């Protein structure tokens, strides 16, 4: 049975003079995601037809989906964050979806990638919040209406909750992607292993795991979309702190 962990191995494709620098399979699929998203959205919105075709409908639906997410979680002032949230959603969604293709690579299954995105959001919240509201931004750690005698307890809890955001945001995406792909690989290995070891009988015995694997693929596609949605919506919730402080 093939090693289910091998699919997450980062392999250098092009080596540069520096031993610490290389163009890897992870970088390749990130580049594919960038080119694919830019090409599709450019082509889909090129005509700006009054009666849109299928591609334009899909692009407009994607736009409205993200815009609605921002309106519901940040409010009207959250429109300034639309380019950021839309880009994050597309990056994570394509990373999850492209990883379902045979011989591809799921770059969102690596904690360094998800952590980079999560800490990017974290630092934007910090920088924009302090820039807009000054030190008043730190009143975020003391919710309104909290009795004074609870302040020494509430403030450390709120600070820890704030600092743990990028960790939970990155680990949630990373863990779901890696767990789902390992499960798919294991059940696919069962089917192949049974067929190879037992001949005709093994082929029949392998139908069960193969059928279950098909169901898992459908479930994993749903998880791929949901994880992109969760990542984007939590980013919206965190960015809301930069809008509400001081109001």
Major sheet description: 2 strands, antiparallel
The number of strands is 2
Strand content bin: under 5%
Decide which structural class fits the backbone: mainly alpha
Q: Which stretches are low in confidence, meaning pLDDT under 50 for 5 or more residues running?
A: none
Determine the number of helices (DSSP H or I, runs of at least 4 residues). 8
Q: Roughly how many Å is the radius of gyration?
A: 22 Å
Q: What is the helix fraction of residues, given as a range?
A: 55-70%
N- and C-termini, Cα separation: 59 Å
Order of helices and strands: EEHHHHHHHH
Shape: globular
The average pLDDT is 86
Number of domains: 1
Instruction: Give the strand line-up of the largest sheet.
Output: 1-2
Report on this structure.
69% of the residues lie in helices and 3% in strands. A two-stranded antiparallel sheet has the order 1-2. The chain is globular, with a radius of gyration of 22 Å. The mean pLDDT is 86. The protein has 247 residues and is mostly helical. It has one domain. It has helices at 25-44, 54-73, 82-98, 111-133, 151-163, 165-205, 207-239, 241-244, and strands spanning 12-15, 22-24. The longest helix is centred in the last third of the chain and has 41 residues, at 165-205. Helix 1 (25-44) crosses helix 2, helix 2 (54-73) crosses helix 3 (82-98) and helix 6 (165-205) runs antiparallel to helix 7.
């Amino acid at each position: 049975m093939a090693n289910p962990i091998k699919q997450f191995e980062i392999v250098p494709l092009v080596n540069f003079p520096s031993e610490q620098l290389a163009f890897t399979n992870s970088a390749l699929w990130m580049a594919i995601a960038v080119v694919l998203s830019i090409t599709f959205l450019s082509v889909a919105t090129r005509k700006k037809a009054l009666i849109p075709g299928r591609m334009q409908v899909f692009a407009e639906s994607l736009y409205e989906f993200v815009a609605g997410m921002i309106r519901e979680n940040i409010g009207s002032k959250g429109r300034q964050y639309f380019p950021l949230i839309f880009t994050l959603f597309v990056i994570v969604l394509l990373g999850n979806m492209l990883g379902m293709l045979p011989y591809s690579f799921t770059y969102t299954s690596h904690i360094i990638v998800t952590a980079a995105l999560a800490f990017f959001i974290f630092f934007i919240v910090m920088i924009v919040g302090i820039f807009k509201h000054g030190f008043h931004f730190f009143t975020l750690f003391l919710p309104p209406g909290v009795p004074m005698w609870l302040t020494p307890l509430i403030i450390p809890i709120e600070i820890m909750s704030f600092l743990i955001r990028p960790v939970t945001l990155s680990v949630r995406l990373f863990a779901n992607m890696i767990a789902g792909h390992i499960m798919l690989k294991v059940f696919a290995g069962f089917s192949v292993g049974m067929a190879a070891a037992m001949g005709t009988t093994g082929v029949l015995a392998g139908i069960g795991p193969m059928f279950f694997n098909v169901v898992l693929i459908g479930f994993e596609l749903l998880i791929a979309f949901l994880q992109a949605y969760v990542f984007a919506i939590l980013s919206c919730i965190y960015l809301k702190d930069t809008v509400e402080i001081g109001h």
